[in-house]
Here is the input.
Amino acid sequence: MMVFINDCYKAEVIPTEYAEGFVKLLAPIAPHLGEELWELLGHTNSITYEQWPSFDESKLVDDEIEVVVQVNGKVRSKVKIAKEASKEQLEKVALEDEKVKEFTDGKQIVKVIAVPGKLVNIVVK
Here is the structure.
């Protein structure tokens, strides 16, 4: 529930469907607050008799992952890339990152070690 609240602070608009689902989850823990919020959402019946919210499994899978980019063994950036990205794509995205360029510009890249789904380590001289 805290993850939802934190995401709500970042969002400009919260869909009513999401707010209703949150209130349904809140109601057993804080019934009075749940009833008040349910009423504010425009419902006239009690939240007590509402059906428990269901989840969509397709929304649980992330298409992108965050990969750590290191320069000489020190974390310099994190990049988001497709889950199925190849080693070459991972290296390309890491080398094009602005934060990484600060540490590699004007230096010789000795080696690039890419572990798909985990990290990219760039060794420079």
In short: The first strand starts at residue 64 and ends at 71. The longest helix spans residues 16-26.
